[in-house]
Write a structure and sequence with these properties.
By secondary structure, the chain is α/β, with parallel strands linked by helices. It has helices at about 10-25, 40-50, 80-85, 110-120, 160-165, 185-190, 205-210, 235-240, and strands spanning about 1-5, 30-35, 60-65, 65-70, 100, 130, 155, 180, 190-195, 230-235. The strands form two sheets. The protein has a seven-stranded parallel beta sheet with strand order 1-10-9-6-2-3-5, with helices on both faces. Strands 4-8-7 form a three-stranded antiparallel beta sheet, with helices on one face. The radius of gyration is 17 Å and the shape is globular. The structure holds fructose -6-phosphate. Fructose -6-phosphate binds next to loops.
Length: about 240
Protein backbone atom coordinates (compact mmCIF):
# COMPACT_ATOMS: atom_id res chain seq x y z
CA UNK A 1 0.00 0.00 0.00
CA UNK A 2 1.23 3.49 -0.82
CA UNK A 3 0.57 6.10 1.83
CA UNK A 4 0.51 9.87 1.35
CA UNK A 5 0.66 11.70 4.66
CA UNK A 6 -0.29 15.33 4.11
CA UNK A 7 -0.35 18.39 6.35
CA UNK A 8 -4.07 19.04 6.29
CA UNK A 9 -7.40 18.48 4.55
CA UNK A 10 -6.59 20.92 1.75
CA UNK A 11 -3.40 19.03 0.85
CA UNK A 12 -5.19 15.68 1.14
CA UNK A 13 -7.77 16.94 -1.37
CA UNK A 14 -5.07 18.14 -3.76
CA UNK A 15 -3.13 14.86 -3.66
CA UNK A 16 -6.26 12.71 -4.04
CA UNK A 17 -7.35 14.89 -6.98
CA UNK A 18 -3.88 14.52 -8.55
CA UNK A 19 -4.19 10.74 -8.39
CA UNK A 20 -7.67 10.79 -9.95
CA UNK A 21 -6.60 13.32 -12.58
CA UNK A 22 -3.64 11.11 -13.54
CA UNK A 23 -6.03 8.18 -13.96
CA UNK A 24 -8.27 10.24 -16.26
CA UNK A 25 -5.31 11.48 -18.31
CA UNK A 26 -3.85 8.00 -18.72
CA UNK A 27 -7.22 6.47 -19.59
CA UNK A 28 -9.73 9.13 -20.69
CA UNK A 29 -12.59 6.60 -20.86
CA UNK A 30 -11.87 5.17 -17.42
CA UNK A 31 -14.51 3.99 -14.96
CA UNK A 32 -14.33 5.79 -11.63
CA UNK A 33 -15.99 4.38 -8.53
CA UNK A 34 -17.13 7.39 -6.51
CA UNK A 35 -18.07 8.03 -2.89
CA UNK A 36 -20.22 10.61 -1.13
CA UNK A 37 -19.69 11.81 2.46
CA UNK A 38 -17.84 14.87 3.68
CA UNK A 39 -14.29 13.65 2.99
CA UNK A 40 -14.21 13.67 -0.84
CA UNK A 41 -15.92 17.07 -1.20
CA UNK A 42 -12.54 18.86 -1.26
CA UNK A 43 -11.18 16.36 -3.78
CA UNK A 44 -14.16 16.94 -6.07
CA UNK A 45 -13.62 20.68 -5.69
CA UNK A 46 -10.03 20.26 -6.85
CA UNK A 47 -11.14 18.20 -9.85
CA UNK A 48 -13.63 20.93 -10.78
CA UNK A 49 -10.86 23.54 -10.55
CA UNK A 50 -8.64 21.54 -12.89
CA UNK A 51 -11.50 21.09 -15.33
CA UNK A 52 -12.19 24.85 -15.32
CA UNK A 53 -8.52 25.56 -15.91
CA UNK A 54 -8.68 23.34 -18.98
CA UNK A 55 -6.43 20.61 -17.58
CA UNK A 56 -8.97 17.84 -17.25
CA UNK A 57 -11.57 16.39 -19.60
CA UNK A 58 -14.41 14.24 -18.23
CA UNK A 59 -16.20 13.80 -21.57
CA UNK A 60 -15.39 10.09 -21.83
CA UNK A 61 -15.31 9.26 -18.12
CA UNK A 62 -17.87 6.86 -16.65
CA UNK A 63 -18.65 6.82 -12.95
CA UNK A 64 -20.32 4.28 -10.69
CA UNK A 65 -21.19 5.40 -7.17
CA UNK A 66 -20.99 3.24 -4.08
CA UNK A 67 -24.44 3.63 -2.62
CA UNK A 68 -27.86 5.28 -2.39
CA UNK A 69 -30.70 5.46 0.13
CA UNK A 70 -33.64 3.24 -0.82
CA UNK A 71 -36.75 5.39 -1.23
CA UNK A 72 -35.06 8.68 -2.12
CA UNK A 73 -35.52 10.13 -5.58
CA UNK A 74 -32.66 11.92 -7.38
CA UNK A 75 -34.43 15.26 -6.68
CA UNK A 76 -34.37 14.72 -2.92
CA UNK A 77 -31.55 16.87 -1.56
CA UNK A 78 -30.51 14.06 0.80
CA UNK A 79 -30.05 11.54 -2.01
CA UNK A 80 -26.56 10.62 -3.04
CA UNK A 81 -27.44 11.33 -6.68
CA UNK A 82 -28.27 14.90 -5.66
CA UNK A 83 -24.98 15.10 -3.74
CA UNK A 84 -22.96 13.96 -6.75
CA UNK A 85 -24.67 16.40 -9.10
CA UNK A 86 -24.09 19.23 -6.66
CA UNK A 87 -20.48 18.47 -5.73
CA UNK A 88 -19.12 17.24 -9.06
CA UNK A 89 -21.26 16.32 -12.04
CA UNK A 90 -22.98 19.69 -12.55
CA UNK A 91 -19.61 21.45 -12.65
CA UNK A 92 -17.62 19.31 -15.09
CA UNK A 93 -18.19 18.06 -18.65
CA UNK A 94 -19.12 14.51 -17.65
CA UNK A 95 -22.09 13.13 -19.60
CA UNK A 96 -24.74 12.42 -16.94
CA UNK A 97 -25.81 9.38 -18.96
CA UNK A 98 -22.42 7.92 -18.06
CA UNK A 99 -22.87 8.44 -14.31
CA UNK A 100 -24.47 5.71 -12.22
CA UNK A 101 -25.87 5.72 -8.70
CA UNK A 102 -28.05 2.85 -7.41
CA UNK A 103 -31.71 3.49 -8.22
CA UNK A 104 -33.17 4.64 -4.89
CA UNK A 105 -36.72 4.62 -6.20
CA UNK A 106 -36.60 1.01 -7.39
CA UNK A 107 -38.72 -0.76 -4.79
CA UNK A 108 -37.79 -4.25 -5.90
CA UNK A 109 -34.61 -4.83 -3.92
CA UNK A 110 -33.41 -7.80 -5.94
CA UNK A 111 -33.93 -5.98 -9.22
CA UNK A 112 -32.16 -2.84 -8.02
CA UNK A 113 -29.12 -4.86 -6.92
CA UNK A 114 -29.08 -7.14 -9.96
CA UNK A 115 -29.31 -4.14 -12.29
CA UNK A 116 -26.47 -2.36 -10.53
CA UNK A 117 -24.19 -5.39 -10.65
CA UNK A 118 -25.06 -5.58 -14.35
CA UNK A 119 -23.98 -1.96 -14.80
CA UNK A 120 -20.64 -2.64 -13.07
CA UNK A 121 -20.11 -5.78 -15.17
CA UNK A 122 -21.05 -4.14 -18.46
CA UNK A 123 -18.41 -1.47 -17.83
CA UNK A 124 -15.76 -4.15 -17.38
CA UNK A 125 -15.39 -3.29 -13.68
CA UNK A 126 -14.00 -0.22 -11.98
CA UNK A 127 -10.58 1.22 -12.83
CA UNK A 128 -10.24 3.38 -9.73
CA UNK A 129 -12.47 3.22 -6.67
CA UNK A 130 -12.55 6.21 -4.30
CA UNK A 131 -13.44 5.39 -0.70
CA UNK A 132 -14.08 7.27 2.52
CA UNK A 133 -13.83 5.42 5.81
CA UNK A 134 -16.60 5.23 8.41
CA UNK A 135 -15.67 5.54 12.10
CA UNK A 136 -16.65 1.91 12.62
CA UNK A 137 -14.67 0.78 9.56
CA UNK A 138 -17.57 0.73 7.12
CA UNK A 139 -16.94 1.23 3.41
CA UNK A 140 -19.94 2.10 1.29
CA UNK A 141 -22.84 0.97 3.49
CA UNK A 142 -21.00 -2.27 4.35
CA UNK A 143 -21.24 -2.10 8.12
CA UNK A 144 -19.30 -4.30 10.60
CA UNK A 145 -19.98 -8.01 10.18
CA UNK A 146 -20.79 -7.62 6.49
CA UNK A 147 -20.00 -10.66 4.41
CA UNK A 148 -16.95 -9.99 2.22
CA UNK A 149 -18.24 -12.02 -0.75
CA UNK A 150 -21.28 -9.90 -1.63
CA UNK A 151 -22.07 -7.84 -4.71
CA UNK A 152 -24.63 -5.01 -4.57
CA UNK A 153 -27.19 -5.58 -1.83
CA UNK A 154 -29.81 -3.83 0.26
CA UNK A 155 -28.90 -3.03 3.87
CA UNK A 156 -31.09 -2.09 6.82
CA UNK A 157 -29.73 1.07 8.41
CA UNK A 158 -28.97 0.74 12.11
CA UNK A 159 -30.92 2.80 14.64
CA UNK A 160 -27.77 4.82 15.35
CA UNK A 161 -27.32 5.70 11.66
CA UNK A 162 -31.01 6.65 11.39
CA UNK A 163 -30.86 8.92 14.43
CA UNK A 164 -27.52 10.41 13.30
CA UNK A 165 -29.09 11.25 9.92
CA UNK A 166 -32.35 12.57 11.37
CA UNK A 167 -30.91 16.09 11.57
CA UNK A 168 -30.85 16.30 7.77
CA UNK A 169 -34.57 15.52 7.46
CA UNK A 170 -37.76 17.30 8.52
CA UNK A 171 -38.56 14.44 10.90
CA UNK A 172 -37.03 11.09 11.92
CA UNK A 173 -39.84 9.33 10.05
CA UNK A 174 -38.51 10.67 6.78
CA UNK A 175 -35.06 9.16 7.24
CA UNK A 176 -34.68 6.18 4.91
CA UNK A 177 -34.50 2.84 6.72
CA UNK A 178 -32.63 1.02 3.97
CA UNK A 179 -29.91 1.64 1.41
CA UNK A 180 -28.49 -0.04 -1.65
CA UNK A 181 -24.73 -0.48 -1.54
CA UNK A 182 -22.02 -1.92 -3.70
CA UNK A 183 -20.69 -4.99 -1.90
CA UNK A 184 -17.17 -5.55 -0.66
CA UNK A 185 -16.62 -8.06 -3.43
CA UNK A 186 -17.32 -5.38 -6.07
CA UNK A 187 -15.09 -2.88 -4.27
CA UNK A 188 -12.25 -5.42 -4.04
CA UNK A 189 -12.52 -6.12 -7.77
CA UNK A 190 -11.62 -2.51 -8.60
CA UNK A 191 -8.20 -2.33 -10.23
CA UNK A 192 -7.04 0.49 -7.95
CA UNK A 193 -8.48 1.82 -4.70
CA UNK A 194 -7.88 5.28 -3.23
CA UNK A 195 -8.91 5.72 0.41
CA UNK A 196 -9.21 9.30 1.61
CA UNK A 197 -9.16 10.09 5.34
CA UNK A 198 -8.97 13.31 7.29
CA UNK A 199 -9.18 14.44 10.89
CA UNK A 200 -8.24 13.12 14.29
CA UNK A 201 -11.55 11.33 14.69
CA UNK A 202 -10.39 8.82 12.03
CA UNK A 203 -7.02 7.93 13.61
CA UNK A 204 -8.22 4.89 15.60
CA UNK A 205 -10.10 3.34 12.72
CA UNK A 206 -7.21 3.95 10.32
CA UNK A 207 -4.98 1.99 12.70
CA UNK A 208 -7.52 -0.84 13.07
CA UNK A 209 -8.27 -1.02 9.35
CA UNK A 210 -4.70 -0.99 8.06
CA UNK A 211 -2.65 -2.42 10.93
CA UNK A 212 -5.12 -4.74 12.64
CA UNK A 213 -6.36 -8.20 11.67
CA UNK A 214 -8.44 -8.62 8.51
CA UNK A 215 -11.92 -9.21 9.89
CA UNK A 216 -15.55 -8.58 8.87
CA UNK A 217 -15.88 -6.65 12.17
CA UNK A 218 -13.77 -3.95 10.48
CA UNK A 219 -14.94 -4.07 6.85
CA UNK A 220 -12.16 -1.76 5.59
CA UNK A 221 -9.52 -4.19 6.90
CA UNK A 222 -10.19 -6.31 3.80
CA UNK A 223 -8.37 -3.61 1.81
CA UNK A 224 -5.10 -5.02 3.22
CA UNK A 225 -5.66 -7.92 0.80
CA UNK A 226 -5.91 -5.69 -2.28
CA UNK A 227 -2.74 -5.30 -4.35
CA UNK A 228 -3.15 -1.65 -5.35
CA UNK A 229 -4.41 0.59 -2.55
CA UNK A 230 -3.38 4.20 -2.03
CA UNK A 231 -4.16 5.78 1.34
CA UNK A 232 -4.26 9.58 1.33
CA UNK A 233 -4.63 11.18 4.73
CA UNK A 234 -3.66 14.12 6.84
CA UNK A 235 -1.28 13.89 9.80
CA UNK A 236 -4.19 13.91 12.23
CA UNK A 237 -5.86 10.86 10.66
CA UNK A 238 -2.57 9.00 10.13
CA UNK A 239 -1.01 9.76 13.53
CA UNK A 240 -1.52 6.16 14.77
CA UNK A 241 -0.53 4.58 11.46
CA UNK A 242 3.00 3.26 11.20
CA UNK A 243 3.75 2.28 7.60
C1 LIG B 1 -20.11 7.31 0.97
C2 LIG B 1 -20.08 6.12 1.81
C3 LIG B 1 -19.57 6.11 3.22
C4 LIG B 1 -18.57 7.21 3.58
C5 LIG B 1 -18.15 7.09 5.04
C6 LIG B 1 -17.23 8.20 5.48
O1 LIG B 1 -20.65 7.02 -0.31
O2 LIG B 1 -20.50 5.14 1.35
O3 LIG B 1 -19.00 4.85 3.46
O4 LIG B 1 -17.45 7.13 2.75
O5 LIG B 1 -19.29 7.10 5.87
O6 LIG B 1 -17.95 9.40 5.47
P1 LIG B 1 -17.25 10.81 5.73
O7 LIG B 1 -16.37 11.10 4.57
O8 LIG B 1 -18.40 11.77 5.81
O9 LIG B 1 -16.48 10.69 7.02
Amino acid sequence: MRVYCEADYDHVSRVAANIIAAQIMMKPDCVLGLATGSTPIGTYGQLIRRYREGDLDFSQVHSINLDEYRGLSPENDQSYRYFMNKHLFDSVNIDKKNTFVPDGVEEDREKACRDYDGIIRSHGGIDMQILGLGHNGHIGFNEPDSVFEKGTHCVQLTESTISANARFFASADEVPKEAYTMGIQSIMQAKKIVVIVSGESKKEIVKKAFMGPVTPQVPASVLQLHSDVILVGDKAALSEYVG
